[in-house]
Structure formats: structure tokens, C-alpha cells
């Protein structure tokens, strides 16, 4: 989608200036490189520290920072956290809620965006503006009435109550609608002449073309759900239904001196997303720039 | 033909209804419900007497409301400019043409995917006096300073802002990076031919080209910072005292610790209007470049 500057200059016509430019591109490069390396180390350092601490024997108290990184190491903490605490259960809850929220969001936003983009009906403009307006409703400021509504629906302390309020994303509709608008109307019309129903148009023609947008919204929704704190914190009281963000504080606040076990909990909570990030870095970064610029 | 047309409005309904229903119940209805709740005495269990605008009058005279709103605004003022400068600076570093580019990008972005609880507890345990990593590291330089990072209002704010920057700068950095890579190369080539220096190019080309995205980041950031809650609750619990308690935490305490949902709703409504004004500003700001809709 976006060319980097390198790709640009290597494909542009080779002129005298181009080669000259390449050479004098950046006299400060080595300074910048050093700064970038230092900054990068500082950014990942707390995460690395967390991973090392999670491998230390529980009685460890290091007075020198270096001690945290040197042996002895042990897997006992992981064993304890995974098999004798609820962290694995909370991890599963977070994944489950995140995946279901993402799938439902993608389904209902793409259906709505399809209707608004590709079907002709009188109140189309009104509906679109009505959905757009939802962007301006800050969830944090309507959390008290939301709590009351979910309570009255008897959905407090359930996965359903956790998921449903999060799936109607106006931003998703906006992004998908602008993406669907790019599918030429002739394609739609000729498919209709061939007897293609709206349902099939949506499923087999328009949706496959929108994969990049769907991926971006999916990633964004999942990260949002994964990190959501306020709503699960208010609506879930049963310990077995906690998501990770709600469960971790209840676990960690029991410790104040030795932080080996708390760091193991944090590591267990973070490793799946760190691995997912390393695998899908490109798509995630692209998704952020995509949704960030649009929404 | 005529019959077909009259049924036309029905056709999109199966596509629209799922979104519409969820949207009405969980996004639109809470706005009306919140107004209703703010006009009554309302406990966790039931609705009680009608109070008219009493809660709003009380809000105006509640020093805790104003101090928590003040704290929220202090956070906005502390975090927004530093966030933009840091995001821009890191974006410039992540834009260096090198094979390490994707490693830099990944390193700056990776804290953003960690849960707020993880980053908060990382901060707590690193900043702890006596056994915390940060103080131990400081003492390696020969000082015996033992700062109590979270027990002093100034240091607590510093810690919260620093942790927030570390945690969320990745998103803004990516926006700046995307904009940087969209600046046409020809601009630089033309400037080079005209004999411009690198400094001139940076101030005459790079910065001006980044103004639109900086505006987007500014508005997104102000809006996001106004909603600050979780990391402060987890790191300082609003303390020491109430020195770092933001508005959302105060609303939460009134509603779910003191069970006064009516008054909490009135404050939510105040916050709602504040954020609404900011989002209107945001959409206006972005409408100018036509990236909205």
C-alpha cells in the first residue's frame, strides 16, 4: 500500500542527482542510529526485565540491578502460576471474549456498511449519519447508565454482557463503507442481472474484496477488547469470569516485597500477545495506520 | 413494479438490523437513560425520589468534583505535548533507512499491546522503594537517594505520565511514520537541487508536511487523555490522598463505592458534554483535510 522511501528512490529514474542524493542523504545518520538503538532498548527493557524476573527463584531479592539478569533461573514460578492459580483461566476468558467480540463486530459492521454502501433506499443517508454520530459518544461517560441497562437485561456478570455493548462500532461501519464504495457499481449490477441476491453479493463479492479493511478492524477490535479494563472491571464480579486485566490486579496486589510471582503473572499474560505481535507485526502496524487515519 | 418499489425500504433491514439493535440498546439508549438517572436519587438496587437538577447543583459546589476534573486536565496538559514530541521524535528515528527499521518500529510499538494491568504492575514493582529496580539502578551511580515515587504528588504524576507515554506512544508514532513516508521524494530532490541544507529541508518541508497529522494526533490524544482512568487507579489509586485521582475514578467511587448512581450520572453527563465538545472539535479539525467520511 505504502512505498517506503527506499523503494521510491530505487524505482525512480536513475538521474545524476539521484545518485548524488543517495550519498548525501543523511550526514547525521550515525547519530540518529545510536539514538534509535538506545531508545529501542529503553522501550523493550521493562519487558525484558519482567521476563527475567519471572525466571528467578521466589526468594530472590536483588540489590544490584544486574542480579536480576544473571542465573540462577527456574521454571517453578511458571508451573505454579499455570497450574495453581486462575491466570490460565483468565487468559482463556480474555481470548474468548476478544475473539467473539471481534467476530461479531466484523459481522454486524460489515452487514450494515454493505447496506449503506451498495443498496439503494430512501433513508440511507439518515441512517449513515445516525451511525456516524455514535463516534462522538464516549463509552467512559455513559458507563453508569450502561451498567443499569445491562443489569436490567440481567446480563451483568456474564460474557454476553461483556461482549454485546462493545460490538456496535461506528468506526468499523465508516471504514468498511468507504472500502465498499470502492467496489464499482457495474460489478454489482451485472451480478444482479445474473440473478445474484444481495446476500450472495455481500458474501462472495464485496466481502472478499474488503479483506485488508476487515483485517485492520479485526486487529483493532481485538487489541481494544484485550486491553479493555473499565467495563469488565465494573460488570464482572465472579472470579472465574475475570478477564486478564481485571484478574491481574487482584493477584498482584497481594504481593509487595517479592515481585517474582507477580512478574510471572504479567509474563504469562503478555507472552501470547508478544508472540502474536512478532508474527503479525506488519499487519498490526498497517492496521493501526489504517484505522488511526480513518477513524 | 410499483409494488416492488414500495417494499424497497424493507430489503436493507436484514443487513441493518443487527447493528441497529445493538447500537440503539448500548450506545443511544444509555444517553437518555443517563439523563433520567441524573435527575433521580438512584441506588445500585432501585430508583428513588425525583430530584430535578439538584445533582447538577451539588456538582457545582463539590470540591472533589472540581479537583478530580482539575487532575484530569493536568494529565491532559502534561501528557499531550510530550506525547506529540515523543511520537514525532521516535517516528523520525524509526524512519531511518536501515535494515533495523522494522526492529525499531516493533520496539517502540510493542508496549502498546500489553494490558493496562501488566504495565501498571510493571511500573509499581519497578518504582518500589528499597527493592525496586529503578531505585537500585539510581543507587549504582553512587547516590543513596531513595525516592518514594508514588508517595509524592509531583513524582507520582511524573511516573504516571512516563508510564502512559511508554505504553501508548506507539500508536501515535505509527501515524507520524505513515505521514512521513507519504511525503513525496520530489520535494526533497527539488530542494537539494536548489542547494537547501538538511536543516532547512527539515524545517521547510518535513515539519510543514506533518502539520495535518499532528493535528489529528493532538485531537485524538486530548480526547484519549480526558478518559484517563485505569493506569492511575492501578498505579496510585488516585493517591497520595487524592492528588492524582482523575474524574472517571471519582465518578466510579461515587457510583460503585458509595452507591450514589444518580449523582454519578450527573457527573458522567458533565463529562459527556465535555467530551462531546472535544469530538466535535476533532471532526471539524479533520473535516478540513477531508479525511473524514
UniProtKB/TrEMBL annotation, chain A:
Compartment(s) where it occurs, according to its Swiss-Prot or TrEMBL record: Cell membrane
PROSITE patterns xrefs: ABC_TM1
Keyword terms: Cell membrane, Membrane, Transmembrane, Transmembrane helix, Transport
Matching InterPro entries: MetI-like, MetI-like_sf
UniProt key word Transmembrane helix: yes
GO biological process, one term: transmembrane transport
SUPFAM superfamilies to which the protein is assigned, alphabetical: MetI-like
One Pfam short name: BPD_transp_1
Bilayer-spanning residue ranges: 33-55, 95-114, 126-147, 159-180, 201-223, 259-280
Domain called ABC transmembrane type-1: residue spans: 91-280
Membrane protein topology class: Multi-pass membrane protein
Family as reported in the entry's similarity comment: Belongs to the binding-protein-dependent transport system permease family.
Record's protein name: Carbohydrate ABC transporter membrane protein 2 (CUT1 family)
TrEMBL record, chain B:
Cellular component GO terms, alphabetical: plasma membrane
Keyword list, A-Z: Cell membrane, Membrane, Transmembrane, Transmembrane helix, Transport
Coarse class of the protein's main subcellular location: membrane
GO biological process: transmembrane transport
Cell compartments where the protein resides: Cell membrane
Positions of the ABC transmembrane type-1 domain: 69-282
Membrane topology annotation: Multi-pass membrane protein
Transmembrane domains' residue ranges: 12-32, 73-94, 106-127, 155-180, 201-224, 261-283
Alphabetized InterPro entries for the sequence: ABC_transporter_permease, MetI-like, MetI-like_sf
Recorded family membership: Belongs to the binding-protein-dependent transport system permease family.
UniProt name for this protein: Carbohydrate ABC transporter membrane protein 1 (CUT1 family)
High-level lineage: Bacteria, Bacillati, Bacillota, Bacilli, Bacillales
